[in-house]
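Tokens as discussed.
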């Protein structure tokens, strides 16, 4: 049952992060911490007890969680990846007015608190 719920949550997370086109209303430091926590959970068997002692399950889930982590980091860094044949090309999209305003609001709220 736990594995089924994990699959459902993973699918919803992947859809959310892979379809996200802007960083408006997203906490950039918070998302960075979430991605780092997910990566550490993959490395630490105690942080993810449902993976502990199950190398087949770990081998099955690790690539899936890495895809989610890359999708999160791609969104917050505004990285665009285009393929020219088999060669990937990376570029960084400029922040929109809304994204800059959202970042200012976030920095203002952390300065005040």
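Sequence:
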């Amino acid at each position: 049952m736990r594995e089924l719920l994990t699959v459902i949550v993973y699918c919803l997370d992947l859809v959310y992060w892979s379809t996200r086109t802007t960083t408006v209303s997203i906490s950039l430091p918070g998302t960075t911490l979430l991605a780092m926590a997910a990566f550490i959970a993959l490395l630490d068997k105690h942080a993810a007890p449902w993976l502990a002692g199950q190398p087949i399950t770990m081998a099955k889930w690790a690539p899936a969680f890495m895809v989610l982590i890359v999708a999160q980091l791609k969104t917050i860094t505004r990285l665009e990846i285009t393929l020219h044949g088999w060669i990937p090309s990376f570029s960084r999209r400029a922040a929109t007015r809304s994204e800059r305003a959202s970042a200012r609001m976030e920095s203002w709220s952390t300065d005040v608190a």
